[in-house]
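Hmm, what's this shape?
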Amino acid sequence: MPVALIESLDLQGRGVAHVDGKAVFIDGALPGERVEYLVCERKRSYDLGTPTHRVRESSSRVAPRCPHFGTCGGCAIQHLDSRAQVATKQRVLEDALWHIGKLRAEGLLSPIHGPAWGYRRRARLSARFVEKKGGALVGFRERKSTYVADITSCDVLPPSVSALLVPLRGLVGALSIHDRVPQIEVAVGEAVTVLVLRVLEPPTSADEAALRGFADAHGVQLWLQPGGPDSVRPFHPLDSPPLYYTLPEFGVQVQFLPTDFTQVNYDVNAVLVRRAMRLLAPRPGERVLDLFCGLGNFALPIARSGAAVTGIDVNAGLIERARDNARRNGLAVEFTVADLFDAAACARLPRWDAMLLDPPREGAIEIIKALADGAPGRIVYVSCDPATLARDAGVLVHRNGYRLAAAGVVNMFPHTGHVESIALFARD
């Protein structure tokens, strides 16, 4: 039986080792452990393995809190101590910056982290009616599978939402369209919890009565989605307060629809916004661009500083709601629609003194390439993918003359391999 020394974790939470010069990804193994393993799949450049015996166990290994861990695909590293999770993600970021971007940050920022449990205010749950299970299942998908995990609780969801998993199974199973409800999206605001049911067929009048009864009994608002994202509509009750979260430090309230993108972890997001404002240091009268601005999560606090802010996003619906958020908060922000993956659109960006980037996983390479030699000041880059951040950082530093002044991780998703980060680029 081959033996491997685990060097690191990948983004799926698998242990990474090298045996005879070939990478091996081993489920459930942790950095520092020496494990015997069985190769379950061979590829040209790597192998996939499963551990059979831990010869040496990591001191950071802990007992998973959730009884469904290992089956449910919602978490990947509950068996790793929370502090060690953050340290591991910091190493992932540093390795990506070095191996992809060929650079190191001048300073490492202290990691941003928050509560390890009950943090997930946004979730997309799968639903499936399974006759052999005696009814409907509602939860995350199983690891490496399209099956819905048979879970009755979830410790990363807020307790009030976790308590709904079993009642939701009963609700879906009782509907006449029980096999036509594949998904339930959860959005928890500060005044209301919204559940969006994807319905592939219209509910009957009896179904509608059951849905109303569930919403009333559990104090939630139900929305229905019969088609694409634009078809989402509130169902019951219709007089619920809006979804919103607050950034008290900046006197900002951000309203959103249940299918809008918002950060899943409100506590960490509040610290992230504070960190971004400190690094960006916007001053009254400065021109600041907030690119991939969404609902105004960063643009509104920037505007509170007195800077002249332009927020840009490709999603016209988000931009319209960002404008509404600015009006409600009494802030002057210019929001506009543009495709920031289009080179021509990026070449037309207005002049600026400082910039904040918060792109999706694809990164912001077209924006980076469009920066002219005279592009001034500071760039704060909030990233959800270390590889694209490292790629873009390499261009900023090696071609555009910026320094990577600081970088650090943001543990937005505890117990998963997902690595968010924030970086400051400066040019003297």
In short: Residues 122-188+192-241 form a domain with the OB fold (Dihydrolipoamide Acetyltransferase, E2P) fold (CATH 2.40.50.1070). The chain has three domains: 3-61, 87-115+260-426, 122-188+192-241. The first strand starts at residue 3 and ends at 5.
